[in-house]
Amino acid sequence: MKASGGPTGTQNFAKLVDGLVADQAKTWAFNRYVTGSASGVNIASRDGQGRPTQLSAGYTYSGFSGNSKGSVRITFENGLPKCIYFFDFPRNCKTPNSSISASYAQGDYAK
User: Which has the closest alpha carbon to 92: 41, 27, 31?
Assistant: First the structure.
């Protein structure tokens, strides 16, 4: 029986960040996320099973003045994404898409 929670082992976190940010970007009023632009993923901390508890990454978005850089911080609970924090609202927890989290839990982001 598989333990509940996020996957262990090597994961493609840039792909995960890309999916989570792209999903959140659907709600943005003016800016548009540049799909596939997630980069510079940094795992700040890990739990006892080696799964991330917090990571950060950069991304590109287009707005009124062309392309700009943004950043995102994602916290994890029990190995699964819990909150997404964007650079412009660093204390505002955005809930990750449950379908993306479920795919991640099933190992769909394994390298």
Answer: 27
The count of structural domains within the chain is 1
Tens-binned pLDDT, residue by residue, of the chain (111 aa): 345 689 988 999 999 999 999 999 999 999 999 999 999 999 999 999 999 999 999 999 999 899 999 999 999 999 999 999 999 999 999 999 999 999 999 999 998
**Could you tell me the pTM of the whole model?**
0.93
* Cβ proximity of 79 and 4 under 8 Å: no
How wide is the angle at C-alpha 51 spanned by C-alphas 58 and 59, nearest 5°? Answer: 10
Does the residue 2 lie in any domain?
no
Domain containing residue 87: 13-97
